[in-house]
Amino acid sequence: AKYIEILKELIKEKDVEIERTLRDLADKTTYLDNILRSSIDMGIVATDLNFRISYYNPAAEQILGSRAEEVIGRDAREIDWKKNVGLPKFEGVIETIPKTKSHMFTFEQDKRDGKRFIHARVSGIWDEQHKLVGFVLMLRDITERKHAEEALQRAHDELEERVEKRTGELARTTEQLKLELTERKRAEEEVKKSEAQLRALAARLTEVAESERETLARELHDRVGQNLTALNINLNIVRNQLSPEAIDDTTARLDEAISLVEETTKHIRDVTAELRPEVLAEYGLAPTLHWYAERFSKRTGLPIVIRGKEAASRLPQAVETAIFRIIGEATTNVAKHAQANQLTITLEEDNATFRLTVADDGKGFDLSALSRSGEQPGWGLIIMKERAESLGGQVHIKSEPGKGTQVVLELDR
């Protein structure tokens, strides 16, 4: 009897423990059921190994279209909605569960509002001994995400098409630019070639002009000058041989003729000097500038100050002649336009560079305004620059309104 009492007590304790366990299990089941039912966007369907449905939450009702009371306890394979899941796919997935633990796939539904895309995940349900006891199907409607992905893909395809189109246009534009650049380069080369030819022509014309000046000066000196001298001598002889009774009538006319001959001779000498100044050939640039300054001042009333001296070694005669012509152009421009009171000509030279500056204190002008207006500079400036370039040098103009003008010639030695 004692052992029976002990056994009853043990059974009673075990019953209490079992009741507590069942109560805890019920609480956990209720808690889990509340969680699963609150999953508003994930449908959950649980079955045993025979596919008999044991759990079916509200989200599954929305996705699969059947109510829980219609499917609980029934074989999932016999329900009408199984075609929405794709039974062959579902059964094939079930066969892989023991090996893979879970499997995912996507299927489509045709509903009144259009086609829906459902993402499904099938997993096994395992007991504490790791024995497969059932299956759970988790469903999520991914239609919006699918549409977004499709829209994104369309946008991507459209963008790729546009990029491909623009790339083609860019390639064509690049080829066109290459062609235009090639043509432009060819045109620039032609322009450079033409400029070189023009410079060579200008240099040749300058050379020919100087040669013609020398020839004309020599002809004037050798022929016209000598003839005028002979004519002057003859007129004086005639005057001295006149009889006393004829002197009164013809002396005045002879004197007038002699004066005209002397004046013409002087003009011939001046023209000859301008055409071919002998002092430049004989003595060089600096003495010629002093000679020219004196003649220029007498003719225009504008004084010229000469600064600098002749270099130790003279420049080539053609270069000295071109420099003298540039000085003539510059001083003539000053006399015509500058309204200056004084001119200064400065010669500077070192081992590498010869520099000539013709400066005046006249009214000056706005170089930038001249460039902006697009107006062409005067022929005098153009001729000076052409002469300098024919020598391999450059002419720079510096001027400001009210501050005079400087013409600077630079040549490499």
What does it look like?
- There is one protein chain.
- The protein has 413 residues and is α+β, with helices and mostly antiparallel strands.
- It has 12 helices and 10 strands.
- The strands form 2 sheets. The chain has a 5-stranded antiparallel beta sheet with strand order 2-1-5-4-3, with helices on both faces. Strands 6-7-8-10-9 form a 5-stranded mixed beta sheet.
- A hairpin with a 3-residue loop joins strand 7 and strand 8.
- The longest helix is centred in the middle third of the chain and has 99 residues.
Give the N-to-C terminal Cα separation.
Answer: 143 Å
The CATH class name of the largest domain reads Alpha Beta
Taken in chain order, the helices and strands follow as HEEHHHHEEEHHHHEHEEHHEE
| Rounded Rg | 58 Å
Overall geometry comes to: rod-shaped
Across the major sheet, the strand order is 2-1-5-4-3
CATH superfamily of the largest domain: Histidine kinase-like ATPase, C-terminal domain
Strand percent estimate:
15-25%
* Strand element count: 10
> Which CATH-level-2 architecture of the largest domain?
2-Layer Sandwich
Give the overall pLDDT as a whole number.
78
List low-pLDDT spans: none
